[in-house]
Design a protein that fits this description.
heterotrimer, A mainly alpha, B alpha/beta, C mainly alpha, B: alpha/beta, Rossmann fold, six-stranded mixed β-sheet, C: mainly alpha, MetI-like fold, 11 helices, extended
């Protein structure tokens, strides 16, 4: 049996050095979390206080569970306005986002400068949450649905252009090569080689945007940009939680229906 | 006539894909290019329509330089060169007819083509192209519903719809089974003979090259190592081109079925 | 083979359905545009209004850079809120996500869990904060963090469940065959496969929550939203401009850092179906993420 141990003699490999990335990441995480939770720097999360205060909340929640259905007719006008705003902003926003997204993709953008500029602008547009847009436009054009639609419009472009440009990045480039080989120009190539490939996604993103708009209207209405948000804010200010419950329920239903519709449409499109 | 004059292509990484190539291809010829992967076949074909730009030297088609062509001119040149791809490169989600109409893009103009309002004559040309490759009954079928061989025939129809003077085919049958490969190659041969279109094909199946190529050129490491008629190319010749002995992968294996 | 008969050309199919839908959509838009109670003539004044605002913010007296400190603090508050909210969401959604996966818990149980998650997701953070958390915690950042946390549970839970459902069952079987108890099977058979992608989701959610936190400021739950609203309400546009710049810069920076970390994590893993939510999804506030199916066409 002296031959066998010879074969086993290959040395055990040394354990490769553990990358530093994970420990550093964990330390950073802990530090940031500690900062975030602390009273001084952060938000001062005190579980004890929370549990005490929870009691207060229960009364309010009780009010919530008794929606005031008589309030429903009063919601019709604002809900309609929300719907109209969502439609208009989504329609125009998605239309404008199409060329913007083509410029923001390496596949369809004419040159590097345009590509970078477009992506840069898109980053900025996306960095502003919808409510900030609402505040800005209310300050610029006054309260009302016009400000709301403008806010949603920019918000939509940020959402759709980013999604779409990344879809364009992933298309099959074969047809593009074929179109250029046949003498097609950039516009023709985009229209016939790229657009057919992204159409289902485009429809999905548009419906998604419409849904986002409905939800966003709760927020932008609070600052006066029209829609159900204003009514919602009024109810909150007067502590009418029973009415608030009605509004929230309606939104819930609305969004649910849109989602069903969206699934139906997408299935038919593929 | 297509003319390469000391043409070279060097890719950004430093790879020399074509070295000092000088070559004349007369009108109406059916030329087959063979060589190992990376030998430069694909580069040569793509240089002809400018998809791969030359690094030095020149390439002229009927006296017009492709290398120095301005973008608009280049599109004009390309509109008269049809190209067929190994992976067909059809737009899967749209109909066969729409795919073939892509061959009419240049002549139809941007406005019409973007809106899809092709002229009657364009649609007629597209239909005739489909008839020539015997697949017109599928005109309104979605491209993705076709078999590989059918898709390639649509690719040929698309090239034909351009009413081209030259047809380039980059490994047109590499993704197809043997019987279908013969059908496609026969179609290309027929088109070359009936319509007098200069046809240049990349193949890596040597038996196909021999059967269908009037003229065979062999490439190795970016340079020309053989140039002669298809009838004279035998195993010896191919072994020289490849620089190694042949394997089963190099031949299709199945002879063509008797012609219809 | 015999002579092939020449095939006759087929008839072009009718596009009636498609055209009808397009017309319907167009009509919907026209109806909305016409019937909305907004004065469209004001549209012409919009560029001027924006220009005037821009002027007041950045050109009239120049932005008030002394405000940078205050704005920065507020932005930091929003970041903490988002951070804590994301952690809460991540921690709670991890086990819940597992239970929501069909291959972990039974079909019925996982279904119930998914429906609950859907219900939670339907409520924008703003609604949650108004309805649930301000009554409890008052107008404080804590309320905002909790609202964001709860909403994130909804989204992250769904995404986690989807990832868990998509795993390779090989390692799970191996763990079971080796005699592992259910928790061990999850820990060693499932978790290593899904963790990178899930962590990427957490980071992505953090980016979105930054925006949500900014929004919550508007109802007084702390952060940069309050600042922007106040400065605009008091017409201190020079300060508002600075605040907006702070938001943009901070958000973009965080997006870049988070995106970089996310890509490193995914690249270093064998994540199979890197869904678009991880790498591509939009950013927005007060709305549920994760609704796009990556297999939409």
């Amino acid at each position: 049996m002296t031959a066998a141990p010879q074969a086993l003699r290959t040395g055990r490999p040394t354990k490769p050095p553990r990358s530093l990335a994970v420990p550093i990441g964990m330390v950073a995480f802990l530090v940031i979390t500690w900062l975030a939770l602390s009273e001084e720097f952060g938000i001062g999360l005190d579980i004890g206080d929370l549990i005490e205060d929870a009691g207060r909340g229960v009364d309010i929640w009780a009010e919530f569970l008794e929606p005031n259905w008589a309030f429903v007719p009063q919601t019709f006008g604002p809900m309609l306005e929300t719907f109209q705003m969502a439609v208009i902003a989504a329609f125009v926003g998605c239309a404008v986002a199409l060329p913007i997204s083509f410029l923001a993709s390496r596949v369809t953008s004419p040159n590097l400068a345009t590509y970078l500029a477009d992506r840069g602008i898109l980053s900025i547009v996306r960095a502003i949450p919808d409510i900030l847009y609402a505040l800005i436009f209310v300050a610029a054009v006054g309260i009302g649905p016009l400000a709301g639609m403008l806010a949603l419009f920019f918000f939509n472009i940020g959402v759709v252009a980013k999604l779409l440009s990344e879809t364009v990045d992933g298309v099959d480039t074969g047809p593009i090569e074929a179109t250029r080989a046949a003498g097609g120009n950039r516009i023709q190539t985009t229209r016939w080689a790229v657009m057919p490939q992204i159409l289902p996604n485009y429809v999905a993103y548009s419906l998604y945007t419409f849904e986002l708009n409905i939800r966003a209207s709760t927020v932008i209405g609070i600052v006066g940009a029209g829609g159900i948000g204003q009514l919602l804010n009024a109810q909150r200010a007067f502590f009418r939680y029973d009415n608030l419950a009605v509004i929230i329920f309606e939104l819930f239903v609305f969004v649910f229906v849109i989602e069903l519709f969206s699934i139906w449409v997408r299935r038919r499109l593929v | 006539m297509i003319r390469f004059d000391n043409a070279s292509v060097v890719y950004p990484g430093g790879v020399r894909a074509l070295t000092d190539l000088t070559l004349e291809i007369p009108d109406g010829q059916m030329m087959v290019i063979v060589g190992l992967s990376g030998a430069g076949k694909s580069t040569l074909i793509r240089a002809i329509n400018g998809l791969v730009p030359l690094t030095s030297g020149d390439l002229t088609i009927d006296g017009v330089s492709v290398r120095h062509a301005r973008p608009k001119q280049l599109r004009e040149i390309r509109s008269k060169i049809g190209m067929i791809f190994q992976t067909f490169n059809l737009v899967k989600r749209t109909s066969v007819l729409n795919n073939v109409l892509m061959g009419r893009l240049h002549d139809a103009g941007t406005m019409r083509s973007v809106l899809g309002w092709y002229r009657e004559q364009d649609v007629e040309i597209a239909m005739q192209a489909l008839e020539r490759v015997d697949i017109v009954e599928k005109a309104y079928v979605r491209a993705s519903n076709l078999s590989g061989g059918q898709q390639q025939r649509v690719g040929i129809a698309r090239a034909l719809a351009q009413e081209p003077k030259i047809i380039l085919a980059d490994e047109p049958v590499a993704s197809l089974d043997p019987p279908t490969s013969h059908v496609v190659m026969r179609d290309l041969q027929r088109i070359n003979r009936d319509l007098g279109i200069t046809t240049i094909v990349n193949l890596h199946f040597l038996d196909l090259a021999k059967v269908y190529g009037d003229r065979i050129i062999g490439m190795r490491q970016g340079g020309l190592v053989y140039d002669g008629p298809g009838s004279e190319a035998d195993e010896h010749v191919f072994r020289d081109i490849y620089g190694r002995s042949l394997t089963a992968d190099d031949v299709l294996g199945e002879p063509a079925a008797a012609p219809a | 083979m015999s002579v092939r008969t020449k095939a006759s050309r087929p008839v072009a199919p009718s596009h009636a359905k498609r055209n009808a839908s397009l017309i319907a959509v167009a009509l919907l838009f026209i109806w909305a545009a016409v019937s909305i109670e907004a004065d469209w003539t004001e549209l012409a004044d919009v560029p001027r209004g924006i220009a005037r605002l821009f002027y007041r913010m950045f050109l009239e007296t120049g932005p008030d850079w002394t405000y940078l400190g205050r704005a920065g603090e507020a932005m930091l508050d929003s970041i903490w809120i988002a951070w804590v909210g994301t952690i809460i969401g991540a921690a709670i959604s991890l086990p819940i996500g597992f239970f929501g996966a069909r291959n972990v818990s039974s079909g019925l149980a996982s279904n119930i869990v998914r429906q609950v998650l859907n219900a939670i997701r339907a409520f924008p953070e703003l609604v949650l904060v108004i309805v649930v958390f301000i009554p409890i915690a008052g107008l404080t950042p804590v309320a905002g963090a909790l609202a964001i946390g709860l909403h994130s549970v909804g989204t992250l839970g769904k995404l986690t469940a989807e990832v868990v459902e998509g795993i390779d069952s090989g390692p799970v079987e191996a763990a079971r065959a080796a005699g592992g108890r259910p928790l061990q099977v999850q820990r060693w058979g499932v978790l290593p496969q899904v963790l990178p992608e899930i962590v990427a989701f957490w980071l992505y959610r953090f980016e979105i929550n930054i925006r949500a936190a900014a929004v919550l400021g508007v109802v007084g739950a702390g952060g940069i939203g309050t600042i922007v609203q106040e400065t605009i309400n008091y017409r201190r546009y020079d300060k508002a401009g600075v605040a907006i710049i702070v938001v943009i810069v901070a958000t973009i920076l965080i997006d870049i850092i988070s995106g970089w970390v996310r890509r490193r994590i995914i690249a270093g893993s064998d994540a199979k179906h890197v869904s678009s939510e991880v790498l591509e999804e939009p950013t927005f506030a007060a709305a549920g993420a994760g609704k796009i199916d990556t297999d939409a066409g």
